[in-house]
TrEMBL record:
Involved in formation of the rod shape of the cell. May also contribute to regulation of formation of penicillin-binding proteins. InterPro entries: Cell_shape_determining_MreD, MreD_proteobac. Keywords: Cell inner membrane, Cell membrane, Cell shape, Membrane, Transmembrane, Transmembrane helix. It is a multi-pass membrane protein. The chain crosses the membrane at residues 6-26, 33-49, 55-83, 95-117, 129-147. It comes from the Bacteria. It is found in: Cell inner membrane; Cell membrane. PANTHER family: ROD SHAPE-DETERMINING PROTEIN MRED. The gene is mreD. Belongs to the MreD family. Its main location: membrane. This is Rod shape-determining protein MreD. Signal peptide: none annotated.
Length: 157
């Protein structure tokens, strides 16, 4: 049970980072902390963090951000499914290939979320919606190293 609570702690920190106010100049560049942390745990421990975890985290994120209930839940569940089913392949990729995979998964997440928001509300596409893809790619190597050290230090298996 200790491993699950330590994983939940990292997800909790990513929720805090997701809702922390930022200056308007850099708000468009906010990384998707929850997405990056969820991808890491789905790749590292797919038997503990999987589609259910992604759906629950997305549902909580919908509540915190005030978005259409279930939109982030569906997207994060799909991302968790993709990463959990391909974890062996993604683990064996080089750092550059992993960054590209994170970019593709982030692009899928943002474009599918936009499509869902556009279908359910009157959201319109704005190019600045795609900046988090780049910042997710930039923070991935650091997040990978920090979360791996965290997992090994606390022997989360």
């Amino acid at each position: 049970m200790g491993g699950i609570s330590l994983i939940a702690f990292t997800l909790f920190i990513s929720f805090i980072l997701a809702i922390t106010p930022l200056p308007s100049i850099i708000e468009a560049f906010r990384p998707d902390w929850l997405l990056v942390v969820l991808i890491y745990w789905c790749i590292a421990l797919p038997h503990k963090v999987n589609v259910g975890t992604g759906w629950i985290c997305g549902f909580i994120l919908d509540i915190l951000l005030g978005s259409v209930l279930g939109s982030h839940a569906v997207m994060l569940a799909l991302v968790a499914y993709i990463c959990s089913t391909n974890y062996l392949t993604i683990r064996n990729f080089s750092a550059v290939q992993q960054v590209l995979i994170i970019g593709l998964v982030s692009a899928f997440y943002h474009l599918a979320d936009y499509w869902l928001q556009h279908f359910l509300t009157t959201a319109y596409f704005q190019p600045e919606l795609l900046w988090p893809i780049l910042t997710n790619m930039i923070i991935w190597p650091t997040a990978l190293v920090l979360l791996r050290k965290y997992r090994r230090a606390f022997r989360i298996r």
